Amino acid sequence: MTLSLADLVQSLGGELHGDPQVRIAGLAPLESASAQELSFIHHPRYLAQLKASQAACVIVSPELQQQALQRGACIVTPDPYLFFARATQWWKRQTSVPVPAGIHPSAVVDALAWVDARATVGPLCVVERGARIGAGTVLKSRVTVGADCVIGERCLLHAGVVIGADGFGFAPGADHWEKIEQLGAVRIGDDVEIGANSCVDRGALADTVIEDGVKLDNLIQIGHNVRVGRHTAMAACVGVAGSATIGAHCTIGGAAVVLGHLVLADRVHISAASVVTRSIHKPGHYSGIFPIDDNASWEKNAATLKRLHRLRERVQALEKPGQPPAKP
User: Fold this and answer.
1) Which residues participate in catalysis according to the annotation?
2) What is the pLDDT of residue 285?
3) In the CATH scheme, what architecture does the domain 3-95 have?
4) Under 8 Å CB-to-CB from 105, ≥6 apart: which residues?
5) Are 131 and 148 contacting, i.e. CB atoms less than 8 angstroms apart?
6) Count of CB atoms within 10 A of residue 313's CB?
7) Where in the chain are all domains bearing CATH 3.40.1390.10?
8) How would residue 321 be classed by pLDDT, with cut points 50, 70 and 90?
């Protein structure tokens, strides 16, 4: 199936430079796009790839318009990456068979659960007693929605997601662990997407809350009683421990960890693999990464790091007249 550039621009806007009747057969990266595919460039560092690209048309910013025109057809828009995202949505709408609403015959839905007639429950899903699934929400295969959990409208939960498993709560006894029953649930807002095999645990007493527009990647763990603010996004393998509160419009890089009971303000951005050990009350970009190195150098640096407090004491002593420096 092919679609014309005219159809694309008519639907999404943008300023087309080139033949509107050119037809595209797909979307592809700059370096691999064929003469029948649409691509995009969002940063000048990729200019060499732009010049060499065989794409039928490239989505560019006004700043890169002249370089793009030297190559061929282009669509000029203030935010090429955002335009490309919308182009992928447009392409899928035009070329894919819509997923029908309804409950797959292999799914298990408790008689006391409620599923909106406009929702889709995929193969082998489980929707437990008292759960509620809103309109336009799609549960892919093997999704489990636990008892009394609520999922809003237009959400997308990918394969293997578990909503409402027990939070990790145990009290230490004399010689064993005593389970703390998890009596809360999970409340998920509208337009939330959760990646494959991610888990959102139910609260111990109050509910775990995922607000509107949150985007979670694959293999993410959200602990009990966590609250994630609207339009926050987390990359794969992030772990958020119990009772943490994360603000709106935050981003958390892959494999980062947020410790329990901490608070992150709105618009806090955490680098990949960081460990957040304290609350962050000001917006900004934060990192907590010890740079990778060959093992011998890393061990030396780690040993030096352990001695920094002694070095600090020596410097403080040297700054005080008449006081001998501390021993190393």
Assistant:
1) 224
2) 96
3) 3-Layer(aba) Sandwich (3.40)
4) none
5) yes
6) 14
7) 3-95
8) confident
